[in-house]
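Researcher: Next sequence.
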Amino acid sequence: FTVRKRVLPLMLGLLSLPILLAVAATSNSIRLLTVLSGNAEGLSGRDVIWPFFEAAFAQSPMFGWGVGAGKVLVDPDSLTAHLLGTTAAHNEYLRIGVDGGYVGIFLVMGYMSAWTWYWSRGLFRSDQIILRLLMFAFALQSITDNTLIAATATVLFVWMSAVFARGRIEAEDRIMVAGHDQVHGLDLAPGQA
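Model: Next structure:
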C-alpha cells in the first residue's frame, strides 16, 4: 500500500472521532461510557454480577484465588445466575483479578502489550499506529466484556499474527531491495541474499 492509502483511513478515523464521541455521549448503548458515567442503565446485569467479583478480588488482591476461580465464583443454580443467564463477569480485569490478582492482570496485559509492541516495530508507521490503537481499543472493551475467553479473541490474535508476519516479510523485502546484507539477523556476504 502507498502512504496515501495508509494515512487516509487513519486521518478519516481521527477526523470522525469527535463526531462519534458526540453521538456516543448522548447514547446509553455504549457500555464503556455508561460504566464511566456511573449509570447502571444498559449494563445488561453487569451491575448485579460485578459485586461478586469485586468482593472476591478485594479478599485476595495480590495473587487472586487461582486460575478458574472466577468460573466457580457465582453458583450456576443461584437466582443471580438464572436472572442474568450467566456467571461470567463480563469484565476481563475483574475476572483476571479474581483468578490471578494484580500480578495476573500485570502479566496478561504486560505480555499482550509487549507482544504488540515488539512485533509491530517493523511495520510501516501507519500500520504500527493502527495496530497499537486496535489493542488499546481491545483493552478498553475488556472493561465491559469477556474479550479473552470469547472466540473473537482468537480471530483477532490470528489476524494480528498474520499482519505481523506480513510486516516481517515486507521489512525483509525492503532490506533486500535496499541492498543491505543482513536478513533474518544473519550477516550475509553480498550476492548471497
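Model: Strands lie at 182-183, 186-187. The radius of gyration is 22 Å.
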